[in-house]
Amino acid sequence: MRKVLVTGAGTGFGHEVAMRLAAKGFEVIASVEIYAQVQTVKRQAAERGVQLRVEKLDVTNEGDRRKALDWNVEILVNNAGVGEGGATVDIPASNIRHQFEVNVTGPLLLTQGIAKQMVGRGRGRIVWVSSREGLNVNPFTGIYAASKHAVEAIAESMKDELQEFGIEVATINPGPFLTGFNDRMFQTWESWEDDPAQRLFDYSKLAFPRAQFNPEPVYATMTAVAAGEIDTYRNLEPKSMIEETKSLIDAPWHKKTTDGLGTRAAGIQRAFDMEPETLRSDQDPISA
Question: In sequence order, what are the beta bridge partners of 235?
Fold first, then answer.
């Protein structure tokens, strides 16, 4: 299997992984959301000395999804996604719908058609880029986390449903990595069409509530999973957060409805205290 479609390859994880897969000799189709990104990615690929095909593919657009069925995709990396930050009781309806259209509905509809082509060939690989937030939750990222929990449910069901047809399915679960994505999530409130006076929080005072990691481990793992060099179903990075993640999955079993009533949750306070784009003190500067 050599032909790879990486969605959301204009920036972030998808961009770097598309470049690395092309460097490995894969026939890469790097898809971007808007036409304005096409020439930029082509130029960046030329600067890195790699060859790839760049296509406009908005996963929420039916015509774009139909177009992708002509590309004979053998490996699909569902990376396209957006993050909507804000309290679950503040985010406007249109933003909630958009979150799920981009992260869940669009990618699933794209995958349905491509997966059936894979079944016809008797082989294929589908990689869902989920998140650590698909396994845990944090304040102000609940709607984003909900979309990634949905991705987890889809991917795990799909793994069982497609295995008899020779189709591999895997997930990538990035933690807090400094690519700009997490910090942009805490700026989406600026375009909300709502009444600011009705909001519970002043979002101009908040930032992503954790120091972030250098993204290199995600680039490496995601590339290896797409290339078939790693065959584990769930792939969480950084690996140093695996045990914390598992303990947080278990934590709701021990909570009480009365815990902390009348006090501010620690995660909420961290969002007030943190500076944007904070790299963990034990991490190297970002180079990629």
Answer: 172
Angle at 286 between CA 266 and CA 213, to 5 degrees: 30
Catalytic residue among 35, 144, 219, 233: 144
State the CB neighbour count (10 A cutoff) for residue 10.
Answer: 22
35, pLDDT greater than 70: yes
Contact (Cβ atoms closer than 8 angstroms) between residue 79 and residue 67:
no
Q: Is the pTM of this model over 0.85?
A: yes
Residue 47, burial from CB neighbour count under 10 angstroms (0-12, 13-18, 19+)? exposed
Q: Which residues, at least 6 apart from 203, have a Cβ–Cβ distance to it below 8 Å?
A: 85, 86, 186, 189
What tens digit of pLDDT does each residue of 238-268 get?
Answer: 999 999 999 999 999 999 999 999 999 999 9
**Which residues 6+ apart lie within 8 Å of 132 measured at CB?**
173, 174, 175, 176, 236, 241, 245
The phi and psi torsions of 174 (rounded to 5 degrees) equal -70, 140
Would residue 144 show up in a list of annotated catalytic residues for this protein? yes
